[in-house]
Design brief:
The protein has two domains: 67 residues, no CATH class; 39 residues, no CATH class. Strand 2 and strand 3 form a beta hairpin. The longest helix is centred in the last third of the chain and has 14 residues. 44% of the residues lie in helices and 13% in strands. Strands 1-3-2 form a three-stranded antiparallel sheet. A two-stranded antiparallel sheet has the order 4-5. With 106 residues, the chain is α+β, with helices and mostly antiparallel strands. The protein starts with a strand and ends with a helix. Bound molecules: iron/sulfur cluster.
Length: 106
Amino acid sequence: MTPTYTTEDIKRISAHFGQTPKQFKDQWLKFDKKEKDWQNKIQPCQFLNLRDHKCSIYEIRPLDCSGFPHLPKKKMVDYIHVHKQNIEYCPATYAMVEKMQKMLGV
Ligand code: SF4
């Protein structure tokens, strides 16, 4: 799993490292033609500090990370595949599904 990077994310994060957006993309990102977005080349994310398990660029992290788990991002039916993927490890997504089950009486 990788975050996606908007043009603004790339500008902000590359500037933080004193790189041009092109240098940053060349070093860390690949363009996914199918999804049409910029993603990490490696996993786990290069900005994950493996000693303390915290994001090393938390204050300037990609919008995709700050908006996780994306509950209001798109209509539920258009994003259900992402919620299904997240339910195993995201308490917020799990709570949303529980709430929906109660509402639907299932
Ligand atoms: S929150 Fe930070 S470490 Fe986690 S995926 Fe996003 S940029 Fe990488």
